[in-house]
């Protein structure tokens, strides 16, 4: 059984959205699917980092 997905609002620069739409189309994904793919890849890369907490900004 697949995990339930959570919806949320994303505010994005119009030029960034256009590029994302083009990229998604090239890879035969929806824009939502492309965003999810990019985020998952970034998270995988972060987990492989020797110190994943090093990149987290602190206030």
From TrEMBL:
<dbReference type="GO" id="GO:0003677">
    <property type="term" value="F:DNA binding"/>
</dbReference>
<protein>
    <submittedName>
        <fullName>Arc family DNA-binding protein</fullName>
    </submittedName>
</protein>
<dbReference type="GO" id="GO:0006355">
    <property type="term" value="P:regulation of DNA-templated transcription"/>
</dbReference>
<dbReference type="InterPro" id="IPR010985">
    <property type="entry name" value="Ribbon_hlx_hlx"/>
</dbReference>
<keyword id="KW-0238">DNA-binding</keyword>
<dbReference type="InterPro" id="IPR013321">
    <property type="entry name" value="Arc_rbn_hlx_hlx"/>
</dbReference>
């Amino acid at each position: 059984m697949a995990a339930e997905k959570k919806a949320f609002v994303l505010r994005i620069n119009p030029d960034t959205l256009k590029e994302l739409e083009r990229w998604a189309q090239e890879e035969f994904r929806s824009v939502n699917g492309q965003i999810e793919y990019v985020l998952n890849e970034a998270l995988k890369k972060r987990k492989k980092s020797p110190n994943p907490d090093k990149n987290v900004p602190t206030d």
